[in-house]
Specification:
mainly alpha; Growth Hormone, Chain: A; two-stranded antiparallel sheet; 2 strands
Length: about 425
Amino acid sequence: MSGAQVDSEFRTGWPSVVSAMVGVGLGLSPVGFYTVGVFAPVLAQKFGWSFGAIFFGITVQTIAAVVFAPVAGLLADRFGARPVALISLVLFAFAFMTFALGNGSLAVYYGTWALLAVVGSGTLPMTWTRAINRRFERRRGLALGIALMGTGLFGFFSKPLTHWLIVSFGWRGAYVGIGLLPLVIGLPVALAWFHEPAGRVVKQAAAPLEGMTLAAALKSWRFWLLGAALLPISFAITGPLPNMENILHADGFSGAEITNLTSLIGLSAIAGRLAGGFLLDLFWAPAVAAVILSMPLISLWLLIQPTLSAGEAAAAIGLIGFAVGVEYDLIAYLVARYFGMRAYTTIYSILYMCFGVGAGFAPFIFGWSFDRAHSYVPILETAAALLLGSVLSLLTLGGYRTPVTTQQQGKQEVAFLKKSSAKNF
């Protein structure tokens, strides 16, 4: 592919990148996660709930998403990503606004979190990245990095916006205000710019998308290795983030210092998206993953130390945020390279489940460990061991697999030609 062809990828594909960035940023993945901490003190005061009970809503959402994300993936593979993403974006917006109807019942509160996952699974990165993976080849990693930095952008501005909405309109009005964002920003952008190239190909028996079927992927050891590695990686990387305020408080930092330091999470996540995407286009993806996902090992080591300076805290937060910034585009890139596009969203959704389980339960387990040990040191040490072993396992994935569609006795079979490892580096 010539330089002109590479440049043409962004000239023709930028609407998909921008719409995906907005859709991901205003979807299920970041909205509840980044705003719950701002709503928590208000809900605790209003209804007398404990912080643990409030944050357990994230776990409820994760459990529901584990069930319904594959359903959304199957629908996207069957009907296309555009209708699934658009419908889910609208339903997710209204579901989030139902938090404003809270009456003090934890059952209703948890039910709303579950509802978010049921109707909002179509807004997860698996749908938005499908169009990007089909439009981009040589600059796929960078395009994915730009698109998925939407989560970091939302994480950066969501906390002060939510706080302002609560002060100006009350907590109920704030839930409505945040819920309107997918409708007034995300939906118009997606309607105008989110389109899959040659969408009709999905339904043409004569020209199917290249790649593995779900059944073939489930027989691949690479699929199971990725799933086994992603769960502990997500546990180790995302677990400290919601607990970071308490970690820093235990180290003697003031409230103002904690606010300034934790704001680095969103900015470093954006940097991770861009840098990771750029590197994926230049080097073998598992090697890029091993390097970037190993960075939080330094963070965990710093957080374990008896004393922590402001500079060390900033470095620890920045390295974790940088790694968090690369996880979704890494999954998208690996699925496209190793399994192809034929069942992309379905395969992505199942691997996302593995990542989501680790990310969803980690904050609760980190907090539970602190309650029992009165220290984060034991769980941080455990996380470091899990992270190291899982990251190293990614290096066994081998060369990318190039899908080649063939016909045999009226049935489609997918064969895979292994690229030279030297070519991948």
